[in-house]
């Protein structure tokens, strides 16, 4: 029920339906859903999926946490994704968004002066703001003029709060912040400054238009006049999971399986990992496992998948090349070495499911206790389509038999036959 096309399932054909039926397995926090076929979600097939905890261990730190405190950050292109992707492959220039949206609203140069999104607060109240990056490319530096805030969650994992003035949020990452509405009643700019691209490449893109409004109750209905004052940025390594999440639970011993994933671009704009550029298999990896694949040579293609054994400590290292937010499906992981540092932390490393590889070696660990076929990929969707991904085939035999074997409903089994019946122009 994870969803990536040709990893866990075949795509859902047009004019059909597919039911995703799963248990949240006691997970709470900020998640999201989106198409996982080519660059389709760049055209808007995406949304938020918050899971609330009625007994939140950090619930005493905030007063309000509801639908009004959800903030989405996304990019908007004036070309459809297939056209943008084709242009990228021909020119090597990654598509630049024409605008960046906060809660679905934003402006671009020369465009209409549409109203900005508004987040309403009451002076004296404390808010848990749930911030989701639904972007296909840029990462954002998020801040609120004249306000400090505490980072308390990374990708569904609560951490001891860390006070900052701004935070970088990469594609697919989610965070929660605690905002104390303790400033003078008025209007303040919420800023999501986009990076990860040259705005000069698109004259319509103006980072100063990537704004929303924090409005105190009683303030006039006008746009803010506040200015951005750079302050302390979150350093990811300062985040430590709360005690209920058992920080450092993977220990400091040597890993059972160590994998280095080296990124290169011998054939730009396409990416290689360990000399291989990812291409979607013709048959989903999970279906191959259920059909008896147990070794790398059994998988088609075998070069793009790693077989990992059950219940072992897995360590993944990615030498830094560019800015790439890597998402691992099926697991949260401990980032024992964050990018741009040589410090290794096994005692209480940050834990999340999307990590930024940004110019320095990065290492994370997880326990292979969840049988399945799990995608590890850059969440800049244009980079994923250009080959920046691998698949972990985890505990092959456990998928077929035993207490953790896969449940395969009829509509899941029917996806590939229905998809294969489509005319090529619809595939």
TrEMBL record:
<feature type="domain" description="Plastocyanin-like">
    <location>
        <begin position="68"/>
        <end position="219"/>
    </location>
</feature>
<dbReference type="InterPro" id="IPR033138">
    <property type="entry name" value="Cu_oxidase_CS"/>
</dbReference>
<dbReference type="InterPro" id="IPR011706">
    <property type="entry name" value="Cu-oxidase_C"/>
</dbReference>
<dbReference type="InterPro" id="IPR011707">
    <property type="entry name" value="Cu-oxidase-like_N"/>
</dbReference>
<dbReference type="InterPro" id="IPR008972">
    <property type="entry name" value="Cupredoxin"/>
</dbReference>
<dbReference type="GO" id="GO:0005507">
    <property type="term" value="F:copper ion binding"/>
</dbReference>
<dbReference type="Pfam" id="PF00394">
    <property type="entry name" value="Cu-oxidase"/>
</dbReference>
<keyword id="KW-0325">Glycoprotein</keyword>
<dbReference type="Pfam" id="PF07731">
    <property type="entry name" value="Cu-oxidase_2"/>
</dbReference>
<dbReference type="InterPro" id="IPR001117">
    <property type="entry name" value="Cu-oxidase_2nd"/>
</dbReference>
<keyword id="KW-0560">Oxidoreductase</keyword>
<keyword id="KW-1015">Disulfide bond</keyword>
<keyword id="KW-0186">Copper</keyword>
<dbReference type="InterPro" id="IPR045087">
    <property type="entry name" value="Cu-oxidase_fam"/>
</dbReference>
<comment type="similarity">
    <text>Belongs to the multicopper oxidase family.</text>
</comment>
<dbReference type="InterPro" id="IPR002355">
    <property type="entry name" value="Cu_oxidase_Cu_BS"/>
</dbReference>
<keyword id="KW-0479">Metal-binding</keyword>
<feature type="domain" description="Plastocyanin-like">
    <location>
        <begin position="1"/>
        <end position="55"/>
    </location>
</feature>
<protein>
    <submittedName>
        <fullName>Laccase</fullName>
    </submittedName>
</protein>
<feature type="domain" description="Plastocyanin-like">
    <location>
        <begin position="279"/>
        <end position="397"/>
    </location>
</feature>
<dbReference type="GO" id="GO:0016491">
    <property type="term" value="F:oxidoreductase activity"/>
</dbReference>
<dbReference type="Pfam" id="PF07732">
    <property type="entry name" value="Cu-oxidase_3"/>
</dbReference>
């Amino acid at each position: 029920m994870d969803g990536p096309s040709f990893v866990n399932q075949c795509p859902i054909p047009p004019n059909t339906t597919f039911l995703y039926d799963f248990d949240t397995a006691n997970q709470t926090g900020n998640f999201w859903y989106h198409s996982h076929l080519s660059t389709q979600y760049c055209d808007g097939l995406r949304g938020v999926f918050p899971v609330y905890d009625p007994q939140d261990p950090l619930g005493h730190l905030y007063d309000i946490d509801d639908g009004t405190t959800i903030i989405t950050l996304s990019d908007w292109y004036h070309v459809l994704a297939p056209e943008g992707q084709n242009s990228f492959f021909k020119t090597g220039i990654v598509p630049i968004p024409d605008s960046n949206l906060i809660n679905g609203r934003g402006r671009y140069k020369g465009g209409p002066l549409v109203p900005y999104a508004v987040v309403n607060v009451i002076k004296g109240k404390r808010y848990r703001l749930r911030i989701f990056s639904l972007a296909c490319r840029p990462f954002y530096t998020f801040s609120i003029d004249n306000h400090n805030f505490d980072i308390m969650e990374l990708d569904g994992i609560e951490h001891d709060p860390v006070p900052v003035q701004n935070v970088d949020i990469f594609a697919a990452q989610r965070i929660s912040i605690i905002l104390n509405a303790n400033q003078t009643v008025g209007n303040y700019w919420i800023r999501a400054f986009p990076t990860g691209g040259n705005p000069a490449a698109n004259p319509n893109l103006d980072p100063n238009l990537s704004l929303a409004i924090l409005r105190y109750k009683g303030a006039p209905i006008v746009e803010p006049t506040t200015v951005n004052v750079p302050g302390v940025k979150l350093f990811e390594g300062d985040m430590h999971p709360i005690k209920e999440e058992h920080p450092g639970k993977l220990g400091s011993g040597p890993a059972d399986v160590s994998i280095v994933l080296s990124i290169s671009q011998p054939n730009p704009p396409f990416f290689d990992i360990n000399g291989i550029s990812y291409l979607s298999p013709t048959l989903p990896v999970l279906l191959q496992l259920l059909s008896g694949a147990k070794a790398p040579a059994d998988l088609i293609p075998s070069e793009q998948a790693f077989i990992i054994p059950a219940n072992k400590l897995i360590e993944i290292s990615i030498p830094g090349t560019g800015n790439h937010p890597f998402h691992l499906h099926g697991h949260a992981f401990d980032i024992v070495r964050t990018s741009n540092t040589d410090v290794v932390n096994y005692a209480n490393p940050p834990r999340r499911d999307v990590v930024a590889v940004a110019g320095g070696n990065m290492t994370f660990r997880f326990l292979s206790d969840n049988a399945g076929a799990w995608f590890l990929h850059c969440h800049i969707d244009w980079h994923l389509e250009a080959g920046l991904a691998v698949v972990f085939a985890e505990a092959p035999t456990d998928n077929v038999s035993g207490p953790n074997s896969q449940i395969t409903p009829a509509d899941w089994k029917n996806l590939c036959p229905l998809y294969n019946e489509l005319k090529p122009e619809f595939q």
